[in-house]
């Protein structure tokens, strides 16, 4: 054990200069534990997490991938229960030809293309305002924008459903004297009513992340720009926004992922939407209905397609911003 | 540092903000506060009105007082199941976040402070997992749990919620920042075992950071809706989010005003925790943004 582990240990030390090899300056043998056991000790620290991670993250991925390759086949007159047969492409071709599923994918893509820039634009403006010299009572405004983050997604959707519902909408009550009313659950408007809830919940959270990045800009740089006579807007555009690029990329990727898993808000609004929010409104809802219909193989295929789509979009976005950054 | 602030004082008169820019900035900030606080204001006002008046008027100002009566009605609906839901939420969140933070701390500390076979691969996998939508795991988890008869068992909610790749990532960042190698080294020279060093030195130095991780996990578990709604069919086991959505969808069985009042009561604990522990949020988000 000892003679085997030692050379490995030595090479590990060499390869990790700058990190923190255990006992770098310490002679082996100054301890009672055997060196081999010592080297594997960190794995014991990680073991509980690794086991649960494998069970709760890796196993479901494998399960969904395998499950999606089996298709349900109904026999004869459908008097017996359908059986699952290995038929790797069947669920995928069905999903891609399923209008409800493909339109849910397009709907969520449209949602992402519009909602993510609007929300992050709002978050960026808020962060710049929090950072502005002219602002007073910044603590209060930061807090009020961040407060919705503390409200669970479904609770936020419940509250907004009362804001939207024709019986209770305080917004429409206020508009009543003007003879106007917003049809929040109109066929064309329902998606944006959902987008508003998501924006309300997350804009402040993202603003605080961007604001934190703004705080890291060295004050000397801002000072120098001011001495050169640059206006506040010019400084924001030429110094502050480029400086928070990293935070913007990060929040964009997390927002894209968030859009892909859109579920809670439309599910809560569905019963009061008068039919404009269907049970297959988003891809996750569509997979849910497949499970409810007893076809979890089909649901698995839909989940895999969604995961691949999200992975491709996130990766493409990372690559795109990376190249720009180096140029 | 002192020279910089000295300059700042000297230059002040030249770049004093104009009334126009102050007006514009404050106007925009005021609008944003209106947007963010409006629904919460409506919720507080409506829940305080006498029972049944929740949807009358514009809902923007108080009109009679029935908050305590409303809470009494909420407590008696369906044999007081609302408080059972609240208790479930507190238990799932408390236990889940506590265990999850402990696991994140151990793993993040080991990733930051030790070299071991597979460290890079492990960290890469965890980072990749941060980028996978969590909801995607819910369906296969539900099927796996029904395979091993864990449906209607609190473990089906707890087990997935203690695994937080983002928590591990934060713990690793924090451990690298706050725990100096020299201190660990001196602990080793004193003959302390690695776990003892972690417990008495590492954990103590990471403590403020661990509060941040705990809070992030708490909110995430409290927010989780899809998984508990699938794996917990028995309403006595459900967390408050699932219970309230069930009430909301039932329409006739449960009067809608109770959903309004329940919504208010259910967000109060989180809002309080959130206001009281503000500085810990900031710490976590700064790390998330800059690293």
Automatic annotation (TrEMBL), chain A:
Region annotated Disordered, chain positions: 1-36
**Cellular compartments annotated:** Cell membrane
The record ties this protein, via InterPro entries, to: MetI-like (IPR000515), MetI-like_sf (IPR035906), UgpAE/MalFG_permease (IPR050809)
Pfam families hit by this protein: BPD_transp_1
Q: Where is the ABC transmembrane type-1 domain?
A: 105-317
Any one of the GO BP annotations: transmembrane transport
Location, primary (coarse class): membrane
Q: Where are the transmembrane segments?
A: 43-66, 105-129, 141-163, 243-263, 298-318
Q: How does it sit in the membrane?
A: Multi-pass membrane protein
Record keywords: Cell membrane, Membrane, Transmembrane, Transmembrane helix, Transport
GO CC, one annotated term: plasma membrane
Give the protein family: Belongs to the binding-protein-dependent transport system permease family.
PANTHER family noted in UniProt: BLL4140 PROTEIN (PTHR43227), DIACETYLCHITOBIOSE UPTAKE SYSTEM PERMEASE PROTEIN DASB (PTHR43227:SF8)
Q: Which named protein is this?
A: Sugar ABC transporter permease
Automatic annotation (TrEMBL), chain B:
Q: Does the keyword Ribosomal protein apply?
A: no
Mind telling me which residue stretches traverse the membrane in this protein? 20-44, 89-109, 121-143, 155-176, 197-219, 258-277
Output the Gene3D superfamilies linked to this UniProt entry.
Answer: MetI-like
Superkingdom of origin: Bacteria
GO biological process: one example: transmembrane transport
| Cellular component terms (Gene Ontology) | plasma membrane
Q: Where in the cell is it found?
A: Cell membrane
Topology in the membrane?
Multi-pass membrane protein
Q: Which key words are in the record?
A: Cell membrane, Membrane, Transmembrane, Transmembrane helix, Transport
Q: Which CDD domains match?
A: TM_PBP2
Indicate the segments forming the ABC transmembrane type-1 domain, all copies. Answer: 86-276
Its family? Belongs to the binding-protein-dependent transport system permease family.
Q: What is this protein called?
A: Carbohydrate ABC transporter permease
Which organism is this protein's natural source?
A: Streptomyces reniochalinae
């Amino acid at each position: 054990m000892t003679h085997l582990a030692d050379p490995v240990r030595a090479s590990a030390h060499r390869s990790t200069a700058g990190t923190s090899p255990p006992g770098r300056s310490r002679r082996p043998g100054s301890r009672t534990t055997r060196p081999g056991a010592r080297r594997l000790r960190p794995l014991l620290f990680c073991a509980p997490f690794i086991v649960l991670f494998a069970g709760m993250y890796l196993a479901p991925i494998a399960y969904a991938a395998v499950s999606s390759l089996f298709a349900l086949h109904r026999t004869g007159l459908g008097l017996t229960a359908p059986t699952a047969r290995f038929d790797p492409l069947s669920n995928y071709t069905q999903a891609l030809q399923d209008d409800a599923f493909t339109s849910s994918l397009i709907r969520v893509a449209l949602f992402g293309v519009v909602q993510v820039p609007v929300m992050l634009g709002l978050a960026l403006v808020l962060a710049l305002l929090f950072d502005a010299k002219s602002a007073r009572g910044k603590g209060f405004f930061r807090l009020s924008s961040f407060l919705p983050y503390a409200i669970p997604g479904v609770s936020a959707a419940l509250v907004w459903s009362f804001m939207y519902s024709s019986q209770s909408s305080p917004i429409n009550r206020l508009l009543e004297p003007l003879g106007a009313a917003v049809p929040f659950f109109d066929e064309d408007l329902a998606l944006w009513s959902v987008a508003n809830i998501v924006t309300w919940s997350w804009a402040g959270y993202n603003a605080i992340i961007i604001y934190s990045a703004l705080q890291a800009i060295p004050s000397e740089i801002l000072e120098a720009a001011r001495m050169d006579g640059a206006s506040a807007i010019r400084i924001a555009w030429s110094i502050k926004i480029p400086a928070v690029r990293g935070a913007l990329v990060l929040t964009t990727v997390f927002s894209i992922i968030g859009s892909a898993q859109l579920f809670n808000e439309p599910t809560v609004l569905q019963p009061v939407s008068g039919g404009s929010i269907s049970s297959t409104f988003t891809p996750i809802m569509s997979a849910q209905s497949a499970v409810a219909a007893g076809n979890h193989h089909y649901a698995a295929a839909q989940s895999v397609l969604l995961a691949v789509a999200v992975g491709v979009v996130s990766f493409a976005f990372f690559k795109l911003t990376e190249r720009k950054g180096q140029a | 540092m002192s020279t910089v602030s000295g300059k700042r004082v000297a230059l002040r008169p030249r770049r004093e903000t104009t009334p126009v820019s102050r007006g514009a900035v404050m106007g925009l900030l005021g609008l944003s506060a209106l947007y963010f606080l409006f629904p919460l204001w409506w919720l507080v006002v409506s829940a305080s009105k006498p029972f049944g008046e929740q949807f009358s008027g514009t809902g923007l100002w108080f009109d009679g007082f029935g908050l305590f009566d409303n809470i009494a009605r909420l407590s008696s609906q369906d044999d007081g199941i609302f408080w059972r839901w609240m208790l479930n939420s507190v238990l799932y969140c408390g236990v889940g976040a506590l265990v999850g933070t402990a696991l994140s701390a151990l793993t993040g500390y080991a990733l930051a402070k030790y070299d071991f076979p597979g460290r890079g691969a492990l960290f890469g996998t965890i980072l990749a997992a941060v980028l996978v939508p969590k909801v995607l795991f819910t369906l296969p988890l539900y099927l796996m749990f029904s395979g091993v008869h864990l449906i209607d068992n609190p473990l089906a909610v707890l087990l997935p919620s203690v695994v937080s790749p983002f928590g591990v990532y934060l713990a690793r960042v924090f451990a690298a920042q706050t725990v100096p190698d020299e201190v660990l080294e001196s602990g080793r020279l004193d003959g302390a075992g690695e776990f003892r060093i972690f417990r008495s030195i590492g954990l103590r130095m990471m403590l403020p950071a661990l509060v941040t991780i705990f809070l992030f996990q708490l909110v995430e578990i409290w927010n989780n809706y899809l998984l508990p709604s699938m794996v917990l069919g028995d309403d006595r086991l459900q967390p408050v989010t699932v219970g309230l959505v069930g009430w909301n969808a039932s329409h006739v069985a449960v009067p809608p005003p109770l959903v309004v009042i329940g919504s208010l009561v259910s967000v109060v604990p989180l809002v309080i925790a959130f206001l009281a522990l503000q500085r810990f949020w900031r710490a976590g988000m700064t790390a998330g943004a800059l690293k």
